[in-house]
Amino acid sequence: MNIDFKLPDTEIVRQAHDLVRSASGDMLYNHLMRCYFFAELFAQQENSNADRELIFLSTTMHDLGFTDLGRGPNRFEIEGAHAARRYLKEWGVEDDRSWKVWTNIAAHTWDINLFKEDEARISQLGILYDVIALPPEIKLDPETVAEIVRRYPRLDFKHGFYEMHREELESKQPYPHRFHMCTCIAHEQGLQLEIPNPKTWLNGAPFNE
């Protein structure tokens, strides 16, 4: 497996790239680009004809809620989805495409995208691979992965990404998150609930940082 580090050759992709580059620090920007190129590897591995422009927009704009372009009272993935759709509409992107990106971003902290169309599912795989490297049975070519990381270094990502979420939590109290109904029922009934330690979760990815 190999990868061409050229981006999809469309004006919207160029505008989105420039936007996230200007809005993001180096650590976050590199994360976004790794997510896209990991998604591209999954698309190649599946021989998928998925729309690469939609995958690029979904993966590189998914954390706008952590930037000044996506600040707001809602949790970061909702604010980021709002910001992404707003910019896409300003750039003339059709309403149905801008809503697809909105949905992919708004749902990316859950597992919903993994059960949707290829553009959503492959985007989600790219994001998950960079954060937790997915379950071990899902493989990508290690040399190509290493080249992506070399081009877009992680820059203490595990610590930095944790801190971004901690700051997000502290800035919005009470935090606007709703638990799944079954989780609430389990808590009500005193059933055992396993709440993972986020540092353990992040540190489980087979990257040094």
What does this structure look like?
With 209 residues, the chain is mainly α. It has a single domain, classed as Hypothetical protein af1432 (Orthogonal Bundle). It is 59% helix and 0% strand. The chain has helices at 11-23, 26-45, 52-60, 76-90, 95-106, 118-132, 142-151, 157-171, 181-188, 198-203. α4 runs antiparallel to α5 (95-106).
Q: End-to-end span in angstroms?
A: 24 Å
Rg, Cα atoms, Å: 17 Å
Secondary structure class reads: mainly alpha
CATH topology: Hypothetical protein af1432
Question: Largest sheet, described in full?
Answer: none
- Written as H for each helix and E for each strand, in order along the chain, the element string is HHHHHHHHHH
Q: Using the 3D structure, state the CATH architecture.
A: Orthogonal Bundle
List the domain count as a whole number. Answer: 1
Q: What is the β-strand count?
A: 0
Strand content: under 5%
**Overall geometry:** globular
Overall helicity = 55-70%
Helices and strands, with pairings:
Layout: H1 11-23, H2 26-45, H3 52-60, H4 76-90, H5 95-106, H6 118-132, H7 142-151, H8 157-171, H9 181-188, H10 198-203
Helix pairs in contact: 1-3, 2-3, 2-6, 3-5, 3-6, 4-5
Short structural description:
This protein has 209 residues and is mainly α. Helix content is 59%, strand content 0%.
